[in-house]
Write a structure and sequence with these properties.
This protein is an alpha/beta fold and 274 residues long. It is built from 12 helices and 7 strands.
Amino acid sequence: MINKALKHIRQGTLSNVVFRKAMGKGKNLLRFLPSSYAINYLPVHDSVLIELDPLKINKIAQSSLLRVRMKRFFFREKTETAFKAIKPDEFHPTIRELWIEGKSYEETSQYAKMIEAVDLYQRGDCAKPSEIGAYWCLSRNDVDRYFQILNGCYESIKQKGYLTQNQLLNEDNKKGRGCVVRNLGDEIRVLIDSSGDIVFVPYSANHRFSIARFLKVNKVTAILMGVSRTWLEREVGITGLGYTHLLDKAIAKHNDIDKFIPDKKDILEGEKNK
């Protein structure tokens, strides 16, 4: 399969299916690709997993549609305004309401939005409640179950650190409990921008990314969706290093903890003093 993938790359016809199968053989296909083929032909895919420190990520993509616009793994940004800074005390609104402000889940703005969506669905006024904020929920009981799972996710990360969806699935199977994993590809997603910074893409795992930062977990697994060609070509010209070495370098700088992330007390005290 590796050789088949390389053949498709040379012909410029590498598909996501072939790439995933090749990556599934247990080898990092990126290590086998000639630079020119990888840079010009490698498609966006879900198979490059990296480990990094979420506390070191200080940028977020403005639009979750960024993935749709990206055709190649090595991409050119449309504009730098696609990214904005993440403040150290900035968390997903639901995570803030639940674990910083101490609200019950029924008091959160997300709960109200989800209840409204499933009620519309139950009345026949909405065919796809997922499109208006209900996620996979179709009833009020589903919404309660959703927040039970979210609370379980928080406790799991707090006790065991961040686990991938595949690790959670294996854990569920071993314990013989109902599986809470709905999509093995539902992982934290990141990309490397033209400054060489890792950027969080709010395409999936938004709550888990925020929980990991809030709990100061120093290692998560993420899908590397793409890399800026502007950054890559500049760094190749400056350093003379190959692209795989440059990727390792960019990822490595997001693994050492040296940035203060305030805890719940710090955040609330700071807001009182504003």
